[in-house]
Amino acid sequence: MKMFDVYPINDVTIVKGEGSWVWDDKGNKYLDMYGGHAVISIGHSHPAYVNAITDQIHKLGFYSNSVVIELQATLAEKLGKLSSKNDYQLFMCNSGAEANENALKLASFHNGRKKVVAFKGAFHGRTSLAVACTDNPAIVAPVNETPNVTFLPYNDIEALEAHFAKEGNEISSVIVEGIQGVGGIRVASREFLRAIRKQCDKYGAVYIADSVQCGCGRTGYYYSHDYAGVSADIYSMAKGIANGFPIGAIAICPKIAPKYGMLGTTFGGNHLACAGAIAVAEVIEKDKLMGNAAVMGDYIMSELKTIKGISDVRGRGLMIGIEFPFETAELRKKLLFEKKIFVGASGKNIIRLLPALNITKENADIFLEALRELMATNN
Ligand SMILES: Cc1ncc(COP(=O)(O)O)c(C=O)c1O
């Protein structure tokens, strides 16, 4: 059997990782400014993470959600503390799309409504309602199409208010990324997030903060949306929570009450995922990684702004977009194969940086120097 060929890949086989570095099967060492797509939060093969999962698998690999799993309560407590949301409730699943799917479904159970507001440029995953809320018709199959989702312009308060004035009483939820990742590292303004909160309160809709990519401390806040000073009703998360062990989750505000059977999953909240996620939360807290993400993000962005030939630098913390006046495919190839540095992309003209939250200034400088050199030879 062959693999189903859906991923355009780089011809590199990564076999080992440590901190912000990875190695290929030929022994070449690469700086990882991409964090395996925002997944690596505390660095590759962090010893606390490796030990937690190794210890757990020696004790018990899996048992179902039909028994007490104390690790779940421990994780909920740690995430509540890290995000300053001790009174929220945690439900665990297995991926970002699944987290959003559960968030949208839960909102609809809560207020009995069907309509969802999403935004132009949004990416929320590839499962049925998550993909229907994603602004990319190429990945929406006919079976996923629904008249219940309306796309409004991102960061447009007037359009939001006008839409709520028209059909606010039918709107179940508003789903929004704090920083659009796939959409080009577009940061939601404070005023926009506050307006979403206000409209949701006025009309009884649920504010869903998709924190799958921008969450888990990456921007200096546990949830990037909280920069606006208002809380969402449901936060969805995945990528960074367990440093690569597959896990998704939603944090749910106290006013949304659970009922037996309303949500459920076989693998969600399993022992190994919880052990990995607890280790990550402990390292984030102990090593003050949210603070490091904020400081290093400011440093990288201010240095990028001094490089000639870049048209825009935006983002917050360690979720950074670098926009160029040309397509970046060639530049990314040079970074990877000549400079041995992984970066991400967002559209054709934007390079996306999503490094581990404990990246050092020395590591960041290696990237900045390499980019400076390539831009100098490009000009
Ligand atoms: C903002 C956002 N939401 C949801 C998802 C979907 O997550 P997953 O690929 O784990 O299903 C992604 C993935 O890139 C994402 O960036």
What does this structure look like?
It is a single chain. With 379 residues, the chain is α/β, with parallel strands linked by helices. The chain has two domains: 14-46 and 289-378, Aspartate Aminotransferase, domain 1; 47-286, Type I PLP-dependent aspartate aminotransferase-like (Major domain) (Aspartate Aminotransferase, domain 2, 3-Layer(aba) Sandwich), CATH 3.40.640.10. Helices cover 36% and strands 19% of the residues. It contains eleven helices and 17 strands. It has helices spanning 35-38, 47-59, 70-82, 96-111, 128-132, 157-167, 190-203, 271-286, 289-304, 329-338, 361-378; strands spanning 14-18, 21-24, 29-32, 89-93, 115-119, 149-152, 171-177, 179-180, 186-187, 206-210, 234-237, 248-252, 312-316, 319-323, 341-342, 344-346, 350-353. The strands form four sheets. Strands 4-12-11-10-7-5-6 form a seven-stranded mixed β-sheet, with helices on both faces. Strands 1-2-3-15 form a four-stranded mixed β-sheet. A four-stranded antiparallel β-sheet has the order 13-14-17-16. Strand 16 and strand 17 (350-353) form a beta hairpin. Helix 2 runs antiparallel to helix 8. The N and C termini lie far apart (47 Å). It binds pyridoxal-5'-phosphate (PLP). Residues 95-97, 100, 123-125, 177, 181-182, 210, 212-213, 238 line the site of pyridoxal-5'-phosphate.
